[in-house]
Amino acid sequence: MTVALAKNGSMLYAQTYGDSDMATHLATQTSTIFEIGSVTKQFTAALVMRLQEQGQLHVDDPISAYLPEYKFSSAITLRMLLTHTSGLANYTTFTQYPGWAANGVSEQTVLSAVSQTPLLFPPGTQWSYSNSNYFALGAIIEKLTGQSYAANLSQSIFQSLGLTSTYYSVPPPAQSAVGYTFNGTSVIPALVCDRSTAFAAGALSTNVADLITWDNALINGKVVSQESFKAMTAPVDPAIPGGGSYGFGLFLRTFDNHPTIWHGGLINGFAAETNVFLDTGFAVVVLTNSDAANTDNIATGIRSSVCTSTQYSSNC
Fold first, then answer.
1. How far is CA 156 from the centre of its chain?
2. Radius of gyration (C-alpha) of the chain in whole angstroms
């Protein structure tokens, strides 16, 4: 595990624990790269907002305007995809998913399966976390730009922010942690989920330094405009059951009166979480190479310890 604390993009603390590779007993470094699963979603949401800023889409457009070849309900808007209020069933729960994760899958196969699966509820009436929403958004980004999702990330975000340790593809093994899972009797290396399967919902890998840079850039208008970021951090209509704690690719909560954006990530062998106080820029990042880790408990404990300490609370 690697833990990092920062303030306005400046690292305050970074510490490592345990091994990045249990077979070789290779100690984790602060530079070690971990998969971050659904933390990817905020990158996807930012790409969508950049396209809106360029006039290529609007978040209240129907999904059918961009993916007409599939049987998606015309009542589903891009906003509903961003906020998990579309009603689309979660493709990672489908019986086909383990095979897709192991062997890879085409976008057409996933989108066809999702569009042909009955909706969980009428669009816009409830909140239900579904990776299918962000898979579809990735396909829309590709269609509008004529480039792969990975190329969009590289050109629009990674290069401009100097995120040199952030990857859509599987990162270099020498720089990366091995992911582990518990098979019921012992801890074993986890299957690496094929990038085509995780896609825009969860394929990214990075280290704590790059995530701190990303967090600071996002909240300070260096990724999307302040207007776009305001939209990303506006909660779903509180009248929608369960939706008041989510924006666009970001969970929203208040910690000790600090408005906070955060998101966890869980993918084969890895668990991750990033938290940022919007008022002060204080950030906590936790990356682990165990999919059994409860990163939210760890991050919450760290925030509590720091922010209630007489010695360190000024950082919050």
1. 17
2. 19
Alpha-carbon gap, residue 153 to 35, rounded angstroms = 16
CA dist 140 and 196 (Å) reads 15
| Max CA separation in the chain (angstroms) | 59
Sorted by sequence, the CB contacts under 8 Å of residue 40 that are 6+ apart come out as: 134, 198, 200, 201, 202, 203, 204, 265
Q: Give 3-state DSSP helix, strand, coil % of the chain, rounded to 5.
A: 40, 20, 40
**Looking at residue 22, what DSSP letter applies?**
T
CA distance 54 to 152: 14
From the DSSP assignment, how many helices (H) and strands (E) are in the chain? 11, 12
Range of the domain at 184: 2-315
Low-confidence ranges of the chain (pLDDT < 70): none
The SS3 assignment for 270 reads strand
Instruction: Supply φ then ψ for residue 29, to 5 degrees.
Output: -110, 160
Alpha-carbon dihedral sign for residues 74, 80, 86, 88 = positive
Q: In CATH, what number is assigned to the domain containing residue 83?
A: 3.40.710.10
Q: How many domains does the chain have?
A: 1
The pLDDT of residue 72? 97
Strand partners, 27: 19
- Tokens of residue 82, six digits: 């961003």
**Whole-angstrom distance, CA of residue 285 vs CA of residue 192:** 22
- In the numeric block, the tokens 């593809």 are attached to 169
